[in-house]
Amino acid sequence: MYDVAIIGTGPAGLSAALNLKLHNKSILWLGSPALSRKVGLSEAIANYPGMETLSGADLNARFTAQIAAAGLEITDRLVTNILPDDSGFSLLGGNDFYQAKTVLLAIGSAGPKALEGEEALLGRGVSYCATCDGFLYKGKTIAILCTDPQYHHEVEYLAQLAGKAYLYTPYKEEVPEGAGLERLPFPIRAIRGEGRVESVLLGDGSDRAVDGVFLLRNSVAPATLLPGLELEGPHIRTARNLSTNIPGCFAAGDCTGRPYQVAKAVGEGNIAAHSILEYLGK
Ligand SMILES: Cc1cc2nc3c(=O)[nH]c(=O)nc-3n(C[C@H](O)[C@H](O)[C@H](O)COP(=O)(O)OP(=O)(O)OC[C@H]3O[C@@H](n4cnc5c(N)ncnc54)[C@H](O)[C@@H]3O)c2cc1C
Question: Burial, 52: exposed, middle or buried (Cβ in 10 Å; 0-12, 13-18, 19+)?
């Protein structure tokens, strides 16, 4: 049982992790070791006190060095479900369960809205994890939505297994190529099926018959992640100390609202860490 599970490896998660580490708390830090794609995309960050203008890629490189120097470890998992229980929280990341007394959601701005049919068909042909469920689709037809190039190795893995794989990516970077892999020209709008996935509906109104759908995203909608979490529009509702409506669950950074800025994310990560210390001390 960890003192705290931090979800998200952007500036908010890092700021909280550094502070909680200084207070000797046991930390489970879940997210991508590649850190925030959003930070990495920023051409120039010119408004962070104490630092000359630098690119987001350079800032991420500094974060990586700081993480190593602080002895912090990142567990490379996308968290798909959090359940409050008597002793704190159970978290599902990939195929693994974790337990923590408190949770910090540092998951970035407004996670994706679930696709129509996604929640109803989850586990019935809809999967978030290629490694966990890919083998079920050997020789079959699947659709893949991939929202981050960091998952291209999973796309390749799925394409090798499946007989046919339709791929949609919302970005322009090159995607893996291979026999049986077809890039879709229109986004996936809905997942359809009676009790099991049967097809995906595309943005042009056409559909493709599929046996399964893999959603390889770098985030999960907050309401799907932690059912019962109060939202304010697309953001997580928090008090001034960054507690949410669920006792022991805190939120920081872009996920709590605008402005979407590194300085605000870092500041909130710091506040949330101190609120978590206070909560654990009670
Ligand atoms: C192009 C661009 C330019 C920008 N320029 C600037 C600028 O000049 N100055 C400035 O201050 N800000 C800038 N920003 C904004 C800045 O990048 C964000 O405000 C900042 O990254 C927010 O930090 P965060 O930690 O809240 O969220 P993020 O940086 O978004 O990090 C959240 C992390 O959590 C991960 N995550 C989400 N859900 C899960 C889950 N379920 N399980 C595991 N991990 C999960 C995400 O993959 C992500 O890595 C820019 C943003 C963009 C896109």
Answer: exposed
User: If we measure between CA atoms, which residue out of 37, 25, 31 comes closest to residue 7?
Assistant: 31
What architecture does CATH give domain 2-111+219-281?
Answer: 3-Layer(bba) Sandwich (3.50)
- The response to whether residue 157 sits with its C-beta less than 6 Å from ligand 1 reads no
Query: Which amino acid residue places its CA nearest to atom 14 of ligand 1?
Result: 261
- For residue 75, give both structure tokens: 């567990």
Q: What separation in Å is there between the alpha carbon of 3 and the centre of ligand 1?
A: 24
The number of residues making up the chain comes to: 282
Give the largest Cα separation in the chain, rounded: 58
Whole-number Å distance, alpha carbon 162 to ligand 1 midpoint, is 33
pLDDT tens track, the chain, 282 positions: 999 999 999 999 999 999 999 999 999 999 999 999 889 988 899 999 999 999 999 999 999 999 999 999 999 999 999 999 999 999 999 889 999 999 999 999 866 778 999 989 988 999 988 888 899 999 999 999 999 888 999 999 999 999 999 999 998 888 888 888 999 999 999 999 999 999 999 999 999 999 999 999 888 888 889 999 999 988 999 999 999 999 999 999 999 999 999 999 999 999 999 999 999 998
The CATH code belonging to domain 126-216 is 3.50.50.60
Mutate which of 250, 255, 262 for ligand 1? The one with the most ligand atoms within 8 Å of its CB, which is: 262
Q: Which atom of ligand 1 is nearest to the CA of 45?
A: 8
